[in-house]
Amino acid sequence: MVLFVIGLGLLIGGAELLVRGASRLAGAAGIPPLVIGLTVVAFGTSAPEFAVSAQSALSGQADIAVGNVVGSNIFNVLFILGVSALIVPLVVQRQLVRTDVPLMIGAGLLMALLALDGRVGRLDGLMMFGLLLAYIVFQVRQGLREGAASAEAPAQQEGRPTGGGQLAMNLGLVAGGLVLLVVGSGWLVDGAVAMARALGLSELIIGLTIIAAGTSLPEVAASLVAALRGERDIAVGNVVGSNLFNILGILGLTAVIAPDGVTVSPAAMAFDIPVMIAVLLACLPIFFTGYRIARWEGGLFLAYYAAYTAYLMLSAANHDALPAFSAAMQLFVLPLTAITLALLGARAFVQRRAQREAI
Questions:
Q1: Contact in structure between 25 and 170 (CB atoms under 8 Å)
Q2: Helix (H) / strand (E) containing 175
Q3: Which of 128, 176, 288, 359 is the most exposed place for a label (fewest CB within 10 A)?
Q4: pLDDT tens digit sequence for 247-296
Q5: Residue (of 32, 37, 2, 35) closest to 18 by Cα position
Q6: Whole-angstrom Cα distance, residue 214 to residue 55?
Q7: How buried is 126 (Cβ within 10 angstroms: 0-12 exposed, 13-18 middle, 19+ buried)?
Q8: Is pLDDT at 161 greater than 50 in this prediction?
Q9: What percent of the chain lies above the pLDDT cut of 70?
Q10: Cα 211 from Cα 146, distance rounded (Å)
Q11: Residue 120: what are its φ and ψ, rounded to 5°?
């Protein structure tokens, strides 16, 4: 219990430091907060995922490495964006819809394609990591161009520090926040596992719930604090950037350092990876409807994460209710949601087209 409470405190404090330092650096360097969220915050909060995946691959536990990446991506979209949108409706920049979300979906499809033979090899990993580096260079260059174009804006000038001391202090806030997030998430997971075992929960249930979500706790803390502080670009960019880093960076580097690459099980190919791709695809119509994530859309995301978790637990326990639950999801809930989102996306597209023609 003590570890759990201390870990939670470190997470909250680390998230506050990280968001504060990152937003100040954005103003100081003339880089939009969205780019900071897509890079520094997103990659930093994915450190626990990398540590777990790399250690698992080196120990020959490839299922944990793959499951960590896939499960974290599902958690990031459905839970983090869901909770953040319920607190404060999130405004989505057009760059995310036009560039970053399609790249995130493309990375998920690339992962599935490379894993068709049951393995993500070292050459595959090198290619994936190279794509991540190219993405980082693209984001930084684009951010610098946008910052230069608005360099004389009063709000931008006010956010700039006047000396090297301020820069060092903001860098220290980011670094300190990342350290607290990583340490805090580890202690929180350890404390939660200890409490779960004391309550008599099985190791499998612990792994499917606490451990899967535990490595994404830094993203949870960073996005929630960013949303509460009004840094909505950082809140959304953190999720999209983390998902890109999880696939291209974590899985790519893990495949490089693992002796024989990363083995992808048939079960992951048959269920978990398709679910991840479906979740990533769900971002497009929701982001597209008015370039915002409304509270009801956040609630929909959370409901789907609860359904996904329930399916995993029923499947693990081989429960009698699993067939009926699966049939309800496949025949009613998922098709109805897909039709609703498609109609909303089509309506938003027609409305924007009519507005352009009127101009």
A1: yes
A2: helix 164-198
A3: 359
A4: 999 899 889 988 888 888 888 888 888 888 988 888 877 777 667 788 88
A5: 37
A6: 16
A7: middle
A8: no
A9: 76
A10: 39
A11: -105, 105
Distances (CA, A) of 197 to 193, 203, 205: 6, 8, 10
- Written as one letter, the residue type at 247 is I
Phi-psi bin for 153: left (phi > 0), alpha (psi -120 to 50), beta? beta
Q: Which residues of 65-79 are buried (b: 16+ CB within 10 A; e: fewer)?
A: bbbbbbbbbbbbbbb
How many residues are listed for the chain in this entry? Answer: 359
pLDDT, tens only, 38-77: 777 777 767 777 766 776 777 776 677 788 788 889 998 9
What CA–CA distance (Å, rounded) separates 266 from 243? 22
Could you tell me if 92 and 292 are in contact, meaning their C-beta atoms sit under 8 angstroms apart? yes
List helix spans (H) across 203-272. 203-206, 212-214, 217-228, 232-244, 252-257, 266-267
At 120 the three-state DSSP class reads strand
The label of the residue with tokens 């008015």 reads 290
Beta strand residue intervals within the chain, DSSP E: 90-91, 119-120, 262-263, 292-293
**Other C-beta atoms within 10 Å of 138: how many?**
13
- Return the number of other C-beta atoms located less than 10 Å from residue 11's C-beta: 25
Contact 253, 52 (CB under 8 A): no
Phi, psi of 337 (to 5 degrees): -65, -45
Write the CA distances from 202 to 60, 192, 195, integer angstroms. Answer: 23, 13, 12
CB atoms within 10 A of CB 193: 19
Start-to-end C-alpha separation, the chain: 61
Domain ranges of the chain: 2-319
The domain made up of 2-319 has a fold known as A middle domain of Talin 1 (1.20.1420)
The Cα–Cα gap between 192 and 186 comes to 10
The answer to whether 26 and 219 have CB atoms below 8 angstroms apart is: no
pLDDT at 120: 93
pTM of the model: 0.76
Mean pLDDT, the chain, integer: 78
